[in-house]
Structures are given as structure tokens and as C-alpha cells.
Design goal:
The protein has 717 residues and is an all-alpha fold. It contains 29 helices and no strands.
Length: 717
């Protein structure tokens, strides 16, 4: 059912949207047509924000109302199955914060920074075009279909709608990929917080603040979202400032934790966040962290517009065509599209959109804002990360992101090697850059996070003065840890839902995701699995999750292929065949890119790309009794052989599972087109909604009247 009738655009609306389109067009034109002249980062902001606004206003609205036909009168699982644990109707503003915080992990911060080695233009195009046509569409459509199916997980939807064979492949692939993603996210948190009392204290404080907010909204002052938001933000800002006091006080040692201690705390936190009622800790903590995330990214955008920094990275570097970049090996196609996942298209999001969020959404009409809108917000984070990496000196960028085995461990060596790539930076400049942010060295600070922090400090110090450069650098490092932790807690809960759905096929009580024994058992298994890989990764530099890190990007994009295959199948089976291209086209693109990357990672003869080629080189070294860099001893040599074997086999198996899912989904779609009567849909029955709530962030005049009427009326039912 349509929730709003088409209205004729007013002259004012036409003028506003024409201006927005012109701003976006001007931004794109400058970025695409510049040849050697200086380009301000403000044009990237203009291209991004203008494109997002048009996409949300027109394309997202078209999909929500014309294709999906969202119905404001249909009760959601949160309303029908409300039990105060997993199913709980949540104010759209809090849920927007939770969903954004849950999907926006390390990816939108780290991926674009790494991809900057190809130049700023390929990454910008993929981040903006990819999110509008693929990423945000996937998130919104998965959220819609999961909401119509009692909040079913992606794997379970695949099993019910595609069939037991393709569905089993999807269940196995989705759960295995989820564990890999959670382990990698956790490792980034450990690396960011280890030996950092400021970051550890500030992030630890978000837990009691969130508990206070949860009880405030549930018990003390229900419905007072604005009130609790002000309290939460004030306490969060205090925790940030107090973190620096703690770091400079006698308490510093208490909050200076070793990586192994952090692993134990993270696993314990993940377990508790997974089993507590969603209103108590998870939703308010994610909502709280969203203020910091959006506030920081918004300030970055303002900083870019005020200081107008120049993009110093080339639009397209030589590494894009040669494929021998020091940050990651491989050509522009397919590896830019694998490296930049979150921010453009991310399979992890489909797990959140079929995990916590559909069990909390009040109205179907809010799917556009929460599904499509959150993904646009994440994409803006990715654009800001790419800007941060592109406004710093390219010589510094490559010195920070190239491994120590390539550039050495002295500023003299690094300067020479980076200079041989065509990017000049003196040893003195490298030393000064580290000193400016109160770090001993910035060489080989790989992983993307420190580069983003340098870019953030560059932009903010242009506005606030050079004296605060070190403050902004350390603030950005902590900001990233907060970003990632919110994806970890929601991800663990979603992993629990996935395992419960899977085990529910064998033992019925697990189907009830709020069944206490099942809830505790599955949370323990999920935390134990990613916790094991994390523990080994922390204690063995080449083991555990470090072993799985190379397949992080590919597995994430393979998962997106599963999500888009399920969405396309459901569009076809639910009578929307003429609109199946909306997810079908992104599916073809994603499958082409990801399966190409998987093939290269398995079969490439370049040892920096192909896992099995790398394995053979190190195995030959072992047979000859010779060390091959970067291995420091024979134990390292054996570990690298094991890692490359595991990575190669896992990549091949995951790619094969995804091919099975896509093939089975294609079979189901063709069968439905030929003989629709054979198809069944597992959609929950229609129940009329008793909740009245606005669709968007700002209620329309009609929605305000509806809410007023509902408050004044007698309770129904």
C-alpha cells in the first residue's frame, strides 16, 4: 500500500533541487576534468553530498514506495512479537543511530585510505556511485524483506526462499564470513586501544552511559529521546575530555592494557551485549556513539569547506594500471572494488539489516530512512576518509602505508624508497611529521587508521591552529576504535541470531531467538569462535585473525552477492519481476568483481597476489633451508605456508559456495517465471499496526497531526 500520494512539485522545490543538481555536477566536473591543476577537496564534498541528496529524495523514494510498496498500516515484528529482549519497537531516531553505528565499522575508515594508492578518482567514483546504486539499495531491500519475515536472518531467508541446497550454502558462507569479519574488526579495536589509556577509558565509559540512557528511556522518562540525547552527549564529551586527564594521571597504568587483556574484555563485552535486552545496552550505546561519529564527520566536512585543503594525491596513480602498489598488490580492477567495501557495498550490512534492526523498527515506512539513509551516512564517512588520505603529502602517505620490509625502518631508507616511486619526501619531513603528533615514528603504520588520523589532524589544525595537531591525531585514533566497537557488539548479536536460525532447523526451540538457553549457548559459541582467532592473532604475529585478514575484503563482497541474490529472488517471487534489475544489476557487477578477485587470489602467478604461488615460494625456501623475507626464522616460514594454504582454500570454498547460491537463485527465478504456481513465499501474515510514528527524521505536517490524534484518542484493541 502506498503511504503518500504523488504531489506536484512546487516552484520552490524545483529551484532547490536544480541547485543541488548543479552543485553535484560542478563537483564531478572539476574532479573528472582537472589535468595537473590544483583541486580543492571541497569539490569532492560537493559531488558527494549533492549526489546523496538526489539519490535519497528520488531513487530511494521510488524503490520504497513504487517497488517495495511499504505499508504504514502493516505491523512490524517489533510490534507483533514485542518481548523486550530482541523484539522491541524503537524510536526511529534511536534506531537510525543503532543501525548506522552497527554497520559503520572499520571499513569506511580504512578501505578508502588503502585504496588511495590508486589515486583519489577511482575511489571517489566507486564510493558514491556504488552506494547509490548498490550498497544502499541492498541494505534497504534486505531490511524490508527481513521485516516482512519476522526479522529472519539472511541465511535463513535464503534457505526458505531459494531452497535447502542453495540455502545451506548461504547459511554456511554467511556464518563463516561473519566470524572472519568480527575477528578482523576486533583486532582493529585491540590495535587501536593497546597501550592507550585515553582511548580505553573513554570507550569503557560509553558502557555505563549507555546503560543509564537505556533505563532512562525505558523506565524513568519513556519517549523523551531529545532529553536523553542531551544527557548522553554531555556525558560522552566529558568522558572524552576525562580520558586525556586519566592518561596524564596516576590512573594511566590502570587503563593501559596489554593486547591479551583487551581480548578478554572484548569477548566478555561481546557476550554480555549479545544476551542483554536490546533496549538496555546495545541500542543506546550505538545511538550514543553515532553522535560522536556524525559530529566528527560533519566537523570534518565543515573543516574542508573552511580550510579548502588541496588534494595532493594524483587523480589516478601509475600503480592503478601496473598493479604493483606497495599498500596492496593487484590492478585497479578488481581490487579497488574489493578494498573499498563498506562505504560503497558491504555484505556485512545485510547481516545487520536482517539481524537486530528488523526486530526493532516501528513502521515499514521508516525502512527508507534507516536502510538507505544510514548507508549514505556511512558513504560520507568513506569520502571523508579518502579526503584525509589525499590531502596529506603523498610521500608521507606511502611511507606510512608501505610495509617495513619494503621501505626499511629508518627515515633515510624510507625517503629513498618512496622517492624511487616518484613521491619525494625528505628524512627531516618524515621525522617532523611524527614529532608534530607526538609519535616516535610514522613509518609503516599500516592498516589505514593512523593515515586517517594524520589527515584529520591536518584538516582540523588548519582551522584550530597547529598547537592542537597532536590532540586531533590522538582524538581520531580513539574515534576509530569507538566506530569499530559498535559494529562488534551488534555483529556478535547478529551472529547469535544466525546460529540460532541455523540450529533451529535441527532443534525447534532455537527458532525462538529469545529462548534463554539457546540465547546463552549461541552467544558463547559465536564469542568463542571470533575470540579464538583474535587471541591467536594477538599472540602470533602471523596467526589467528592475521591469517584471515587477507580474505577480509573478498569475503565481505562475496556476502553482498548472497544478499543481492536473495533480494533479486524475492523481488521475482513476490510479483516484482519488472523491478528485479534494481538488485539484479548490482548482483551481476558484484559477482563479476568478486569472483574475478577470488580467481586471481587463488591462481595468480604473482606471489603478492596469489595465495598458492606465495605458498610454493616459501615451501621451496623451507626445502632449501633458506629464509625468505619477511620471515625472520623457520617457524615464520612454516606459518606463512600454513596461512597461504588456509587463505587459498578458504577463498576457493567461499567463492564456490557463492556460485552455488547464485546458480540456485537463478534456477528458482526461472522456475517462478515459467510456473508461478510452484512458488511459495514465507512472508508473515498481515496484522494491522496500532503504532503511529513518522517515517522520516523530521515529521511532516500530516504526521504531526496523526501523532496528535493518536495521543488524544482512546487506546485501541
Amino acid at each position: 500500500m502506498h503511504t503518500d500520494s504523488p504531489r506536484k512539485a512546487s516552484p520552490r522545490s524545483i529551484v532547490i533541487w536544480t541547485l543541488v543538481a548543479l552543485i553535484a555536477a560542478a563537483g564531478w566536473s572539476v574532479l573528472a576534468l582537472s589535468r595537473g591543476e590544483e583541486v580543492s577537496a571541497a569539490w569532492m564534498v560537493a559531488a558527494a553530498l549533492g549526489s546523496y541528496a538526489i539519490a535519497y529524495r528520488f531513487y530511494a523514494k521510488f524503490i520504497a514506495h513504487k517497488v517495495l510498496r511499504v505499508d504504514k498500516n502493516r505491523a512490524t515484528p517489533a510490534e507483533r512479537l514485542n518481548n523486550g529482549i530482541d523484539f522491541h519497537p524503537t524510536d526511529r531516531r534511536v534506531l537510525l543511530g543503532h543501525h548506522f553505528a552497527a554497520i559503520a565499522g572499520a571499513g569506511p575508515l580504512v578501505g578508502p585510505v588503502l585504496a588511495a594508492q590508486m589515486g583519489y578518482l577511482p575511489g571517489t567514483i566507486w564510493i558514491i556511485v556504488g552506494v547509490i546504486l548498490a550498497g544502499a539499495v541492498q541494505d534497504m531491500v534486505v531490511l524490508f524483506f527481513s521485516t516482512r519475515r519476522d526479522g529472519r536472518s539472511l541465511g535463513q531467508m535464503a534457505r526458505e526462499e531459494i531452497g535447502p541446497f542453495g540455502g545451506a550454502a548461504a547459511l554456511i558462507a554467511a556464518f563463516a564470513i561473519m566470524i572472519i569479519l568480527l575477528g578482523v574488526l576486533a583486532l582493529v579495536v585491540v590495535n587501536a586501544l593497546a597501550q592507550s589509556p585515553w582511548g580505553t577509558f573513554s570507550i569503557a565509559m560509553t558502557v555505563p552511559i549507555a546503560l543509564l540512557m537505556g533505563f532512562y528511556l525505558r523506565v524513568l522518562r519513556p519517549g523523551r529521546v531529545a532529553e536523553v540525547s542531551l544527557i548522553g552527549v554531555a556525558l560522552l564529551l566529558f568522558a572524552l575530555v576525562a580520558g586525556r586527564w586519566v592518561a596524564e594521571s596516576s590512573w594511566a597504568d590502570t587503563f593501559t592494557l596489554a593486547p591479551s587483556t583487551l581480548v578478554i574484555w572484548l569477548v566478555a563485552y561481546g557476550f554480555i551485549a549479545s544476551i542483554l535486552p536490546v533496549w538496555m545496552l546495545l541500542a543506546p550505546r550505538d545511538y550514543l556513539s553515532t553522535f560522536m561519529k556524525i559530529g566528527t564527520i560533519g566537523l570534518l566536512a565543515v573543516g574542508v569547506v573552511v580550510s579548502l585543503p588541496t588534494l595532493k594525491m594524483d587523480p589516478v596513480t601509475d600503480f592503478a594500471s601496473r598493479g604493483d602498489g606497495p599498500v596492496f598488490a593487484g590492478a585497479l580492477f578488481p581490487f579497488v572494488f574489493i578494498t573499498i567495501a563498506c562505504g560503497a557495498l558491504s555484505g556485512f550490512h545485510s547481516l545487520i539489516a536482517s539481524g537486530t534492526t528488523p526486530k526493532m523498527i516501528q513502521k515499514e515506512t521508516q525502512i527508507r530512512m534507516i536502510g538507505y539513509g544510514s548507508m549514505l551516512m556511512e558513504s560520507s564517512v568513506a569520502v571523508m576518509a579518502l579526503i584525509a588520505a589525499s590531502v596529506i603529502d603523498p610521500g608521507l602517505y606511502f611511507a606510512m602505508n608501505a610495509p617495513a620490509g619494503v621501505i626499511g625502518d629508518t627515515v633515510q631508507n624510507a625517503s629513498q624508497v618512496v622517492g624511487s616511486w616518484g613521491y619525494q619526501i625528505s628524512p627531516g619531513d618524515l621525522a617532523a611529521a611524527a614529532k608534530n603528533v607526538e609519535e616516535a615514528s610514522l613509518l609503516s603504520r599500516t592498516g589505514g587508521a593512523p593515515t586517517l588520523a594524520i589527515g584529520v589532524s591536518e584538516i582540523f589544525s588548519d582551522v584550530t591552529g597547529d598547537g592542537l595537531r597532536a590532540f586531533w591525531y590522538h582524538f581520531a585514533i580513539m574515534f576509530e576504535a569507538l566506530f569499530i566497537l559498535t559494529a562488534l557488539d551488534a555483529g556478535t548479536r547478529v551472529g547469535r541470531f544466525m546460529l540460532q536460525d541455523t540450529l533451529g532447523n535441527l532443534y525447534k526451540p532455537f527458532k525462538d531467538v529469545s529462548w534463554k538457553p539457546g540465547l546463552v549457548i549461541t552467544s558463547g559459541i559465536v564469542c568463542g569462535l571470533w575470540g579464538y582467532f583474535l587471541w591467536v592473532g594477538v599472540h602470533e604475529p602471523l596467526g589467528g585473525i592475521n591469517q584471515l585478514f587477507p580474505i577480509f575484503g573478498i569475503s565481505n563482497q562475496l556476502l553482498a552477492a548472497v544478499a543481492l541474490a536473495v533480494c533479486t529472488t524475492l523481488l521475482v517471487k513476490s510479483g516484482r519481476l519488472k523491478w528485479a534489475w534494481i538488485t539484479g544489476v548490482p548482483l551481476v557487477w558484484d559477482a563479476t568483481v568478486t569472483l574475478t578477485a577470488s580467481w586471481q587470489k587463488v591462481f595468480s602467478s604473482d606471489p603478492r597476489v596469489g595465495f598458492f604461488k606465495q605458498r610454493s615460494i616459501y615451501q621451496d625456501g623451507i626445502d632449501r633451508g633458506e629464509l625468505v623475507a619477511p620471515a625472520k626464522n623457520m617457524d615464520d616460514m612454516h606459518t606463512i605456508v600454513t596461512n597461504s594454504t588456509v587463505d587459498g582454500v578458504l577463498t576457493a570454498v567461499l567463492a564456490l559456495l557463492i556460485v552455488v547460491v547464485i546458480a540456485d537463485a537463478t534456477r528458482v527465478c526461472i522456475r517462478h517465471i515459467r510456473r508461478p504456481a510452484l512458488s511459495t513465499l514465507s512472508e508473515a501474515p498481515y496484522v494491522e499496526s496500532q503504532i503511529v510514528a513518522p517515517a522520516g527524521l523530521i515529521p511532516t505536517r500530516e504526521e504531526k497531526e496523526e501523532v496528535r490524534d493518536a495521543v488524544g484518542a482512546e487506546p485501541r484493541g
